[in-house]
Design goal:
eight-stranded antiparallel sheet; 4 helices; AIM24 family protein; AIM24; Trp_RNA-bd_attenuator-like_dom
């Protein structure tokens, strides 16, 4: 039996989102400052540069987190590697190698709670059901998820285009039912959602945060010819084709809807 005081009830802590086993909290100001850093801390808070954390309630669901993300835990919490035999280890090692994600993502079970490390990035909770049960994440965004979600490495539609664009060939896909959390460079309020119905979306830069697994993802020239690409002033663009949706950051880049 345990009790926790002065966490979500703290006046300096704001609950910004809650979904499934996850609660995202935000520290409104950095109160642990010295005189020489007080001014910087003040303006950080004014400009929404704040520490954020994820609280995981394992009584609601067991969770899988990025390696090294745990800060503290209380109560009945058991950590496992999530590996179910030699075959599963080899599969996860291969997926980690090609996708750039950690090979081992620890799974936590029990009825206690766990807090993840603070970050200045924006923590966004999403439900895989809203993506038809299959969503692809951009590299390095995954933080945590309901352990019922299966992890897969999905390959881009074109090997040569990925190499030419300096992009990774594989991305992490989450499949099944459950809530997941990503770390993004912009808040949820700024993310743009574009829904395609057998159509095409072209983005100049890595501004897509997540997209439906059913979309074909390639890197192509912005124009139909080398001359056309040169004339437009753009080079290679990320292209999403088919039916599904794309969640995109608005900061920089250009979008063409064809």
């Amino acid at each position: 039996m345990f009790q926790i005081a002065n966490l979500t009830s703290n006046q300096n802590v704001k609950v910004v989102q809650q979904m499934g086993p996850f609660t995202v909290i935000e520290h409104q100001r950095d109160l642990s400052v010295r005189p020489e850093s007080a001014m910087a801390s003040y303006y950080c808070a004014e400009m929404n540069v704040r520490k954020r954390q994820v609280l995981c309630e394992l009584s609601k669901a067991q969770v899988t987190v990025q390696a090294g993300a745990m800060q503290w835990m209380a109560g009945d919490v058991n950590a496992t590697t999530g590996i179910k035999g030699v075959g599963d280890l080899l599969e996860k090692a291969m997926r980690g190698k090609v996708s750039g994600e950690g090979t081992i993502k620890p799974e936590y079970t029990g009825s206690g709670i766990m807090m993840l490390e603070p970050t200045y990035k924006h923590l966004i909770l999403m439900d895989a059901a809203e993506w038809g049960g299959a969503v692809v994440l951009d590299d390095g965004l995954f933080l945590a998820c309901d352990s019922r979600l299966k992890h897969k490495a999905v390959m881009r539609s074109s090997f040569s285009s990925a190499v030419a664009g300096g992009e990774g060939l594989f991305n992490l896909s989450l499949n099944g039912s459950g809530v997941f959390c990503i770390e993004a460079d912009c808040p949820k309020e700024e993310l743009i959602e574009i829904t395609l119905q057998n159509d095409v979306l072209k983005i100049d830069g890595n501004y897509a945060v997540a997209w439906s697994a059913g979309l074909a993802f390639t890197v192509e020239r912005s124009g139909k010819s080398l001359i056309g690409s040169a004339a437009s002033g753009e080079g290679l663009v990320n292209v999403y084709r088919g039916t599904g949706k794309v969640l995109m950051m608005p900061t920089g880049g250009s979008v063409t809807h064809v």
